Amino acid sequence: MVMSAKERKLSRLGSCKGATVAGGCGGGGGSPAARGHRSAAASAAGPQRRLFAALFAFLCAGVVVIGGVHVIGASFRPVLRTAWPSGTLNAISSDAGAQQAGGGADTVLPSVQIRHAVGFPDRVLLILKDGSSLPAPERFECLYSPANSSELRYRALLAVSLPDGSRLVHCPAEPSGMDISLSLSLSPPVAPLQWDRLVYTALVDTRDNSTVVFAKGMNLRPGRLGVASRYQCVFGRDLSKPKHVLTSPVISAAQEIFRCVTPARIRRYLRMSTDANSNGDTDDKPMLVSIRTKGQRDSTLPSIAEPEPLPRYNRHRRQKAHSMCVCTMLRNQARFLREWIIYHSHIGVERWFIYDNNSDDDIEQVLNTMDPSRYNITRHLWPWMKSQEAGFAHCALRARESCEWVGFIDIDEFLHFPGNQTLADILQNYSNRPRIGELRTACHSFGPSGRTKIPKKGVTTGYTCRLAAPERHKSIVRPDALNPSLINVVHHFHLKEGVRYVNIGQGVMLINHYKYQVWEVFKDKFSGRVATYVADWQDEENVGSRDRAPGLGTKPVEPEDWPRRFCEVYDTGLKDFVHKAFTDPDTGSLPW
Fold this sequence. Notes:
By secondary structure, the protein is of the alpha/beta class. Helix content is 25%, strand content 25%.
């Protein structure tokens, strides 16, 4: 009987299986003759197998060499690498990564991904994707790998992570034309954008369905409205593809702030993305917004601005959560922060918005010592250079739903009440007068007061000699009364039409401005200034301005008579109040 091919195959498999059990069919059994035949065959096949293995190894080596040539020819790009031991990395890796790796020693690295990169004159700012695991800064290295050269390594200048998801890494400045990538992830290289021509943040205002866009590079004049019709807002995931973006008209343009209509499709997208983010989902390619200049040479600014919804407007709420809040912008002022917060809490401030402009001192540790049940403090990372006015506008919008009044003062400025009225009395006098939108108060500038070292008990008790005449004024504003353009200069805002400001008398309220402290503190002013429209102290520009120290020039060289300067009137009013209100009767110490 003729057997089919399939039957013959099954027959061979079955006979082999039986032979295996009996010791034959390729096993170790069988007759001695048969085993000798197989051994001879194997010996004959040995050289062929070795030749094949050598050929296979040669081909694999060729693939590696070709790949290496490609890597060597890659562009010069820095990467960020951690120096952590593998055990530490394994301990902090995500649960999902541990599951993928089986929970053993080969657990995957933390998922660190660059979302944006911005080049500044002295550093590169890396904005990481929310949820990225950020090791301590001393564990980071910025790696620069130029073509045909050995790898260069520099430790990261700063690494910051906040509970709200903000994660920033600062690396040393990169050579021109370089991309940035990370060794901790498979993220593709990112080309750093330039800080001075950039849309850097945006807020969505649900009160009027507008988007407030903050941008550098338009060079609008300070304190004046620009021509809004020259610009339009552009929304999209990829702004380089005109067919895939939405545009909307700009309502107002002033300084670095543009307000435009939020398209209905963008509002729906933001609602959906907010719901997705609350469920733990993140968008790998988020929605961006930018500013386009209209005309024959249409141009759109580069953007990293993802529209962020403001707290929803509650038109039925009659009273806000806080009567008095404070916004400030600082850099490396941690040693003065406790005194400033504790003092202002005592006089009636209920909420603090601290905009941190690249501090690398102990600000996080200091804020961690403040009892959150007593001090309602939010630290917001604001890394943008020369942008204090934009930061204050940003803060005014964020504070609007919860704060009736907001003071815009610096960390070396202290509200003081020489008379019998308190802060609560003053605010109450004007809270029922909606046509009053700003309270202006004079500033007295204090000098070193004969000191050569930082006073151990704080600035309010350490400096007691000042200039006779006030130099400027600062403001407490009602956020609801601000002009929609959000124009502000030197700590005071333009107000809505029909709303006005009042000057508070110096006998009622004023500000002690500890501007000219001991040289150790004062010299830090030469490192740069946050205000947009004032020159840095080392610039040969507006040397005679009131923003400068009279007669100091542009060099951080201490004058011999510095401790005795700016001393025309001895004023111990605030010092006396502080000793009375804060001194511990048993130890004589102050709470800061």
